[in-house]
Structures are given as C-alpha cells and as structure tokens.
Amino acid sequence: MSSAYASVRDVAVLQEATQLILASTDLETVLHQSLLVVRTFFGASRCAVFLLDEAAHELYPQTHHGYDAGAIPGPLRLDGEGAPQHAAQTRALVHVHGPAAAGGSELALPLLVRDQLLGVLLLVSDNPDAFPESTVPLLSLFAAQTAVAVENARLHSTALRRRRQIELINLIARTAASVSQTQQFFFTLTDLLGDAFEGARVAVVLRGPEGIFVPAISSNGEPDLDRFRASARNGVLGHALEQRAAVLEADVTGKSGWPACFADTGSELCAPLVFLGEAMGAMVLAHERANFFTDDDRALAQAAADVCATATRNVQLAEELHRVANHDFLTGCHNQRYFYSALAQEVARARRYNKQFGVILLDLRHFRQVNADYGFETGDQLLHKVARSLQLQLRSNDVLCRYMSDRFAVVLPEIDRRGVDAVLGKLRSAVESITLPRSTNALGLASASVMCPHDGVSEMELVNVLLDRLEKAKSGT
C-alpha cells in the first residue's frame, strides 16, 4: 500500500512538473526543466536532449547534464550505432543495460509529435537497474509530453521570429522614407537585418564602376574586400547576382575552398538587390553555425531584398536630388540655397550652445568685363579656378557657396573675429594670385564679413549687414 501510495504521489508530482514544462514557451527552459525532472524522478546521473538536424542528418546535443567537459556525446550521425541513433531510426524506446552499456544503463526515448521526429531524450546511469520496466510507461509518457512542449516552444519561437522579420520589412520601408543619405540607410539596414537574423553577420554589397564595394557591414572593423571579390567570382555572392535570386549555402564547412564572405562561416545566405532588372548589389548574411538558415529565411531575405532594392534606389535618387538642388554645377561648391540653409543651422547652433561664428562674402570685381573681354567659357574656367583656390584655404567644416554669379560666401563655424580676419586674408591672397589670361593683371576682390551674435542674431540681420558692408567695400567707403 505504501509503495502504491508513493507511486501515486510520484505520478502527481511528475504531472505537476510536466505541466510547468508545457506552460513554458522558451525552448531552453523546456529542455532544462525536462532534464531536471529525469534527474529528480528517474535517477539519471547523466542525461541529454538531442535535437534533429534534418539537413545534416545528425542529432546534436542541445542540452545536457552530468557530463564531464569533452565527454559530451555528439553530434551523432543518424546512420551511426548507439542507443540515441537506434531510437531515432526506429522511433521507439531503446533500453540498453549491463555489459552492452559498459556495466550501467542507457535509455533513449524518441521525441515524437504526430510521428515527426524532433530529437531524442537520453538517460544514462552507472547502475544497470536504474530504469526498471515499471518506469518505462511513465518515461514514455513524459517523453511524449516533452516533445509537445519542444514543438510548442519552437512554434512560438518561429512565430515571434516571423513577426519580427515582417516588422523588419516595414521598418526598412519606413527607414528609407526618413533618411536622405545612402550611407546612413545602409548602416541602419545592417542593424535591422542583424536584429532579425539573430547572431548573423550582415553586409551590404554594391556594384560600382570599379567593381564591388561594401558600404556597410555589421561586424566591427573593415570588410575583407578580397573575400567579397572572391565570392563575387564563384561564391554565394556571384551565384546570387547571376541568378538574380536568393541563394542559400547551408553548410559552407563541407565545401573545400569555398570563398566565404566572412571568416569562420558555417552557412551563408545572399539575396540580390534587383531594381527594374538591374542587379545593383546584394545583402549577404553569414553565421558561424552550419545549417543556421532555413528555406523560410531565404524567402524572407528575398522579400526584404526586394524592398531594400526599391528603397535603396529611392534614397539614391533623393540624395542626388539634394545634391543637384544644393550644389553649383559650374564651380562644384554649394549654391545660394544651401548657403541660407547652412546659415540657419549655424544660427540655431549658436543660440543653443552660446557659440559664435563668422560669415564672409567675396565679390570678384569687374567680372562682367572679364566675360566681355575673354568670353564666357574663359570666365567659367576662372570661376572654377577661384572656387578651387578658395576651398583649399578652408577647414573641412567650413562651408563655401557660390552666392551669385561673381560672388562667393563662406560660413565659418566656431571662430572668433581674429580667426575670421585671418581666413579672409588667406582667401584674398588666393584670389589675387590668379591672373587673367594673356595678362599680368590679377583678379580684383571686394570683401566683407560679419560675426554672430555681435553683428546680428538672425539670418536676415546677418545677411543685410553683410551686403551693406560689401557695397561699402566696393564703393571704397
């Protein structure tokens, strides 16, 4: 009676523990709790859960307990010899004890859901009588419930992953609408893809006039261009660009001499960026583990790449439009429109951080007469030469603009009056060193400068003072 009572009690406690396992949606939690149960209720000194890798035809140890470092079994070939392999092959419990189990006992239970093999639960003990026949039905029931918990956790994980990846596509589209620079977009894109495919390294590869280049990469450091070029010749990158479809290499380690884009790569996934029939480049994802990416991942990567291709072209067009709208075609420097934009930014920065800055306006004297005497082509060449000479005298954060036909404006951030006067002196010397064609006469120059906030605290105040001072400089007053 007492043994029967103990059996009922054990079953009740086991049922409660199993319900806790079934309630969990995290795979690692499910497996660790399962091993805790088999150690506590069934006396296993060593135990492991092997999950099936169908692509590799292997059982790999996902979770284990009681094994010394280096003694953990696996991965195990499905066609190999051993209790776990036999359980997987026959989809039935395998019990080995006595001499066949090195004097101990091994019990391998297949984890099945609707006759689909998920893996194997292995229990090992040094006691040959550790797993009596009376416990087998209970163990089989527990293994079946563990399999259901594993499947539920996997489905939950897959659902979460798919939801995150669908959100990824929407994020890519929204990001493209909010950024104006391709480099910023590519960096954001690699971050988004890295989050969607956890643990994967990501690179954006583009085609250019001189071959492929990598504008953005998720891993730290510079990309190994030799690797990417080799892959573009006869690796996953080249295959994807040639086929204009996503290519998955599940096990790179099994391909001798395979030109992987990243070092220590186990699997690669590459989706081309195709826009209006043109393969602009590709997204490359790599993981150190073989068979990491699935066919579903390939389909999702292609969907993301299609969105990325359109988004990339939109950002490139927006960037080109911004460049055309803010640059002077003749001189290559910024135009008047950009000058007012830069001036407004500096005024706002000066107010916020209590900074000062300067603005210089230069006027090429009698330049209309230069055009009349030498022709517009020569005048254009002189303007280009002036712009290039002025730019050489400025800092990287200074902004040079062609204000109008023969005038140039310079915005000088974070500078004092003495600094402005020094820059003005260098600019004047640069212009006056340029001589007219077939003449020793130099270009004439009138100039004016203002300081913010000393001469004004708004764009219009500064510009009005600047133009007034320039007119006085031209008239010699």
Short description:
By secondary structure, this protein is of the alpha+beta class. Helix content is 48%, strand content 23%. Strand 5 (105-113) and strand 6 form a beta hairpin.
Give an overview in words.
The protein has 477 residues and is α+β, with helices and mostly antiparallel strands. It has helices spanning 2-23, 27-42, 83-90, 136-178, 182-196, 225-234, 236-243, 295-326, 336-353, 367-374, 376-392, 417-432, 459-475, and strands spanning 46-53, 58-65, 76-77, 94-97, 105-113, 116-125, 201-208, 211-217, 247-249, 267-275, 278-287, 357-365, 399-404, 407-412, 444-452. The protein has 3 domains: 2-156, GAF domain (Beta-Lactamase, 2-Layer Sandwich); 179-325, Beta-Lactamase (2-Layer Sandwich); 336-475, Alpha-Beta Plaits (2-Layer Sandwich), CATH 3.30.70.270. The chain is built from 13 helices and 15 strands. The strands form 3 sheets. A 6-stranded antiparallel β-sheet has the order 3-2-1-6-5-4, sandwiched between helices. Strands 8-7-11-10-9 form a 5-stranded antiparallel β-sheet. A 4-stranded antiparallel β-sheet has the order 13-14-12-15, sandwiched between helices. A hairpin with a 4-residue loop joins strand 1 and strand 2. Helix 1 (2-23) runs antiparallel to helix 2 and helix 4 runs antiparallel to helix 5. The chain starts with a helix and ends with a helix.
What's the mean pLDDT score? 86
- List low-confidence stretches: 1-6
Q: How many strands, which pairing sense, and closed or not: the largest β-sheet?
A: 6 strands, antiparallel
Helix fraction by DSSP (H/I, runs of at least 4): 40-55%
CATH architecture of the largest domain: 2-Layer Sandwich
- The count of strands amounts to 15
Strand order of the largest sheet: 3-2-1-6-5-4
Shape summary: elongated
**Count of helical regions:** 13
How much of the sequence is in beta strands?
A: 15-25%
What is the rounded distance between the termini?
120 Å
Q: Give the oligomeric state.
A: single chain
Number of discrete domains = 3
Order of helices and strands: HHEEEHEEEHHEEHHEEEHHEHHEEHEH
Within CATH, the superfamily of the largest domain carries the name: GAF domain
Q: Under CATH, the topology of the largest domain is which?
A: Beta-Lactamase
Radius of gyration using CA atoms only = 36 Å
Give the CATH level 1 class of the largest domain: Alpha Beta
> Structural class of the secondary structure composition?
alpha+beta
